[in-house]
């Protein structure tokens, strides 16, 4: 292996950012490069990584004992991460060089713009990786350029985008008082120093967001590299153990698969709100009874902090045969299973792309951040599902959950949605095949920055 074939991947340390970076690393590894994923020491100590072909290393966010929860606030976390991260990334780059594996290309999460500075000090090529959709990134670019006045109170018409109502925008933009100013700052800061990086990579499939990607390509040379899903799922093959990825929580794979195996094709509603969303007890209850009244089997991920919000007796009544309630699922395996006919999702970007790429129709129940925009596209642009309507005050009632699940699984447009889902699945699969849009971009990066022939 030539010395210059090492690519280092630096994710932001949460599930939805680690997964796509790990999978991107696997694509480089599959082309014969050494790929190393370096999450934080805390993550590496507490997670269950099965990274397969990707090496692991770690940097520090300054909170090695308890990670983010130790910090108290997002801004305190990011400040310390920048200091400790810069220092330990510097150390890691030196160690790798001393071990005969000098890093050639540093791919860093756009939430960590300082990493690019460290890489450049070492003379490396740097690539900023944007984890969210091209659409959402383009919206933030327009905010940074002063083309959107905050808070947004009326529909906006912006270059490269369809007309968007306030409810279609990332949650930070229409809020009268931004409830999460540090998050808004973090997403807008992703574009800081972008002119200094060699490459801008986006976690999407060009064909899914054509106009948005074309705009970003012209504006900053952005390249799509998704879907960041192991190809074997796109090919309908079963994973080997080493393909399970990097779960921060332990899924009971055998239990979920055995339960799904016992259900007829396209009969199951899979429900997951990702790794961070927290529903109110009232919303959890409406969701629970909404699922119950569909009469369909459901596999519902209720993370342990959320379990106390389930209505009393619900898990006992539904949690074995009609339903399976788990604290964490092997989501890709679940979505790839023939028994799953609908995905009730918070529309986190990874979950949305996973549903689309595995051909599963969606019911969008967006909570915050980029999720409302992803849900808008699910319903109106890709036409692979519906998004729920909220009551005044924000609650989604059980009747609405039931209506949406029925619409997607048996309504007048369900056939069309399923056909669209299959179409996007084919496009996503083609993007990561030889000569596909994303695979060509990766081959181009390797040809440009690494000695290894792509
Ligand atoms: N995921 C999983 N098991 C679960 C729930 C989620 O493996 O029970 C994975 C999912 O496949 C996705 C990631 O966790 O890759 C969640 O990312 P997403 O962007 O959808 O949501 P976030 O957690 O960032 O809100």
Automatic annotation (TrEMBL):
InterPro entries: UDP_glucos_trans (IPR002213), UDP_glycos_trans_CS (IPR035595). The keyword Transferase applies. Its EC number is 2.4.1.-. GO terms for molecular function: quercetin 3-O-glucosyltransferase activity; quercetin 7-O-glucosyltransferase activity. Keywords: Detoxification, Glycosyltransferase, Transferase. GO terms for biological process: response to toxic substance. The keyword Glycosyltransferase applies. It holds the Pfam family UDPGT. Belongs to the UDP-glycosyltransferase family. This is Glycosyltransferase.
């Amino acid at each position: 292996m030539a010395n210059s074939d090492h690519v280092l991947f630096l994710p932001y340390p949460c599930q939805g950012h680690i997964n796509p970076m790990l999978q991107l690393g696997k694509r480089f590894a599959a082309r014969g490069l050494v790929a190393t994923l370096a999450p934080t020491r805390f993550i590496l100590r507490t997670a269950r990584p099965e990274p397969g072909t990707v090496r692991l290393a770690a940097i520090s966010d300054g909170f090695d004992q308890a990670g983010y929860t130790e910090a108290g606030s997002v801004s305190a976390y990011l400040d310390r991460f920048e200091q400790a991260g810069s220092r330990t990334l510097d150390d890691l780059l030196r160690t790798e060089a001393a071990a005969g594996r000098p890093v050639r290309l540093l791919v860093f999460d756009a939430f960590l713009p300082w990493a690019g500075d460290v890489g450049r000090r070492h003379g490396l090529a740097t690539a900023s990786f944007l984890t969210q959709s091209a659409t959402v990134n383009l919206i933030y670019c327009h905010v940074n350029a002063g083309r959107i006045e905050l808070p947004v109170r009326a529909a906006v018409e912006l270059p490269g985008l369809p007309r968007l109502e306030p409810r279609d925008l990332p949650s930070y933009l229409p809020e009268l008082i931004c409830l999460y100013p540090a998050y808004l700052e973090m997403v807008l800061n992703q574009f800081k120093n972008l002119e200094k990086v060699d490459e801008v990579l986006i976690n999407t499939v060009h064909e899914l967001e054509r106009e948005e990607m074309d705009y970003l390509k012209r504006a900053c040379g952005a390249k799509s590299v998704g879907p960041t899903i192991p190809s074997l799922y796109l090919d309908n093959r079963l994973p080997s153990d080493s393909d399970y990825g990097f779960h921060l929580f332990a899924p009971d794979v055998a239990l979920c698969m055995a339960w799904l195996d016992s259900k007829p094709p396209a009969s199951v509603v899979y429900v997951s709100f990702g790794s961070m969303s927290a529903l109110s007890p009232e919303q959890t209850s409406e969701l629970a009874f909404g699922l119950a009244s569909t009469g369909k089997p459901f596999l519902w991920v209720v993370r342990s902090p959320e379990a106390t919000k389930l209505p009393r007796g619900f898990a006992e009544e539904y949690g074995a045969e009609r339903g399976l309630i788990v604290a964490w699922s092997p989501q890709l395996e679940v979505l790839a299973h023939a028994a799953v006919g609908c995905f009730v999702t918070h529309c986190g970007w990874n979950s949305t792309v996973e549903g689309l790429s595995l051909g599963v129709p969606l019911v969008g129940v967006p909570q915050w951040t980029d999720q409302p925009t992803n849900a808008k596209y699910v319903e109106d642009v890709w036409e692979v599902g519906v998004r729920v309507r909220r009551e005044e005050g924000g609650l989604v009632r059980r009747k609405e959950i039931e209506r949406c699940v029925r619409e997607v699984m048996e309504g007048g447009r369900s056939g069309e949605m399923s056909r669209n889902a299959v179409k996007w699945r084919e496009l996503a699969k083609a993007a990561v095949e030889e000569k596909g849009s994303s695979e060509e971009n990766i081959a181009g990066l390797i040809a440009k920055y690494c000695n290894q022939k792509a």
